[in-house]
Write a structure and sequence with these properties.
three-stranded mixed β-sheet, 45% helix, 2 domains, homodimer, 13 helices, alpha/beta, Dehydroquinate synthase-like, alpha domain, globular, Rossmann fold
Chain lengths: 360, 360
């Protein structure tokens, strides 16, 4: 097992990464203060891992809430089901929530924990590659609104994150690829040597070699932890983690949640960021091709298949959180492995890139 | 104008108290960072003060959302109306929300500000006595759940609080009395000389003498600010501010929101706390009578009029936030002007007090 410490002062917490971690009760119990534990999971994950996690918590008063599965259920109404369960079980401020599932479960459980009685403890047990390398770490929680993704939420850090890569055994190929998009993101945004590692090992990673997966997850979490430690509340550098996300959110918002998986939208978004960087003279054609090839080798989409008009795309981008007083801020690449935040470009350049990916 | 600073490190903010403050634009504009301002108010307050506040903000992109009025609308669904308005107007992270109204508007606006895009700025303009002396100060925000009051929320501090006591001119007598309950609370919980001031001046205060009102509001906010500064997140001493609230919330939850106003429920709750303190040997019969008389002179209720059974009351108390792993913590009085937090008493004593106030 590898342990990584996310250093956030009084909000610091460990991230455990390895195999068979769901056999080790103390990884959880050391981080539970009270007696009341609410496990939040969904209809897909519950039959696979709920009994296992419950068996680790025999000494506690454990209740559970099983949510419907899917990004389309990442709403205030679904979070309200968690509040219902907490109140029906008369859970008090000393309770702990455990998020058992992917990013949607983690984001909603974290927001419920942030808001229940103005804040209770929670623990992340991410069971998808995407949530293991991204959403479970860093304390961003929240839900979608019909007019925008992740528009409602809170910064609320978990007490620990338990990443058992054995849970990936039950993840389907499409979800696995979607997670790989976020892994690739860390290479592209700030870690050229990790990018080279991924390019060299992508086929072995796609065959799900556990040793390599642990390496990739550990490096992804390390890179994320470093950035989050410098900028917990995303007032600056943390925005780099949104590489591909401004484009990607526009795709998800326009097509409706669930047509593209989040990681799939981010895949297309990263390629659009690369194209935009080429247009600004920073990336070579070869570099853009390298990005595209790595995504394709990860079985990720590199286009929106003509499903979105340029106008829809631009409109959706302008409600993204990364807009400050009307200007669209983008995360672009100076070179492969080095991204930056900018709003200095010609609107026509952005429209050109969008035009290349969309219908007129 | 009196100015009070609530000292919370980087979350510190000023509280302005006086007359004709809604004529002074800079009290607001000095605390607005971006260009986008959303005024949140309700159907009662909008016709009275919305135009006035808007006229102070000519330099900004101002939008408004007018909520239904009443504690029964203090729900997630109503907060969602604020999110709808923010997103329809494409407000970004740099926006500022202004709560213009009583405690319900303030609590919901604060929670919307805490949660919109994981946190934006907000300003409180409380227009009721209750919100001026209590809910607008200290950063507690949130909404009710059918199973419990204020069960969903966040700690989120405003950028400033503008208390124009002239807005009390439009407050009806019942609401004014309800606010006086929270004023009396500060005397009872920790300020014997303020309690004496109130006892000596209650009839003049009830006749709405502006000079005395400013004194009472200033002292209430001073006492609250001091406690909040010591314990922003209510891990200890701040719970003293809940004097009367554990009992009061049980009344509100059992009867349904709106039958008793919040301040009215707190009035009964404080008298119950006094009776309980008498039972524990701390308060004399005379002291309890003093409490009762002060409440009655403020035209506040001192009983639940036989509307609640003892069993209902006890059941409602056990889901209150102040329950830690099953024990009901109470705020009781050592003497008039000195309260403390305790869970050491006989359950039968609590049942006896509840029995005195309820049907069998």
């Amino acid at each position: 097992m590898k342990t990584l410490e996310l250093d956030l002062g009084s909000n610091s917490y460990p991230i455990y990464i390895g195999q068979a971690l769901l056999e080790q009760a103390e990884l959880l119990t050391n981080h539970i203060a009270g007696k009341q534990v609410m496990i939040v999971t969904n209809t897909t994950v519950a039959p696979l891992y709920l009994a296992k996690v419950k068996s680790l918590l025999a000494a506690f008063n454990v209740a559970e809430v099983i949510l419907p599965d899917g990004e389309q259920y990442k709403t205030l109404d679904t979070v309200n089901l968690i509040f219902d369960a907490l109140l029906e079980n008369r859970f008090d401020r000393s309770c702990t929530l455990i998020a058992l599932g992917g990013g949607v479960v983690g984001d909603m459980t974290g927001f419920a924990a942030a808001s229940y009685q103005r804040g209770v403890n929670f623990i992340q047990i991410p069971t998808t590659l995407l949530s293991q390398v991204d959403s479970s770490v860093g304390g961003k929680t929240g839900v979608n609104h019909p007019l925008g993704k992740n528009m409602i939420g809170a910064f609320h850090q978990p007490k620990c994150v338990v990443i058992d890569v054995d849970t990936l055994d039950t993840l389907d190929d499409r979800q696995y690829s979607a997670g790989m998009a976020e892994v690739i993101k860390y290479g592209l945004l700030g870690n050229a040597s990790f990018l080279e590692f991924l390019q060299a090992n992508i086929s072995t990673l796609m065959s799900r070699d556990k040793g390599l997966i642990i390496q990739a997850v550990y490096q992804s979490c390390t890179d994320k932890a470093e950035i989050v430690a410098q900028d917990e509340l995303e007032s600056g550098k943390r925005a780099l983690l949104n590489l591909g996300h401004t484009f990607g959110h526009a795709i998800e918002n326009t097509l409706g949640y669930g047509v593209f998986l989040h990681g799939e939208a981010i895949s297309v978004g990263m390629l659009m960021a690369a194209e935009m960087s080429k247009l600004l003279g920073d990336l070579s054609e070869d570099s853009v091709t390298e990005v595209k090839e790595l995504l394709e080798k990860s079985s990720l989409p590199v286009s929106v298949n003509g499903k979105i008009s340029a106008l829809e795309f631009l409109s959706a981008m302008s409600v993204d959180k990364k807009v400050i007083d009307g200007n669209i801020r983008l995360i672009l690449m100076k070179k492969l492995g080095e991204s930056y935040i900018t709003d200095t470009y010609q609107k026509e350049q952005l429209e050109q890139v969008i035009g290349n990916f969309c219908q007129a």
